[in-house]
Amino acid sequence: ALGKGSDLEKAFATMALVYNNAADPEGKLSKAETKSLLQTQFGGFIQGQENKPKYQEIISALDEELENKIDFEDFMILLVSLALMSDLLQEIKNVKTTK
């Protein structure tokens, strides 16, 4: 559907597809599923973050109250939060691409 979309549109569509493929019929993820999805699909961004207090806070919130589920909006906020604190983001920001 986004064959001619921009790189940013394709990236967003990929995030939505990954989420939707993992979500339950109600379109939500358990916190355990969310943690697993982050580890398998977002590992490059969360690698090396284990000692950061904010990362520990986010992950421990996923380990608590497992009956609560995450919707797509909360998942996107989680992704952005983890990406912003990531060392990988800093490396990416230092790379200039030419077209």
UniProtKB/TrEMBL annotation:
Tell me the gene name: Sntn
Domain EF-hand intervals: 50-85
SUPFAM superfamilies in the record = EF-hand (SSF47473)
Per the record, the coiled-coil ranges are none
- PANTHER family linked to this entry: PROTEIN S100-A1-RELATED, S100 CALCIUM-BINDING PROTEIN
Which GO molecular function annotation, any one, does this entry have?
calcium ion binding
- Lineage, top-rank taxon, reads Eukaryota
Q: Which InterPro entries match?
A: EF-hand-dom_pair, EF_hand_dom, S-100_dom, S100_Ca-bd_sub
Which organism is this protein's natural source? Ardeotis kori
Q: What is this protein called?
A: SNTAN protein
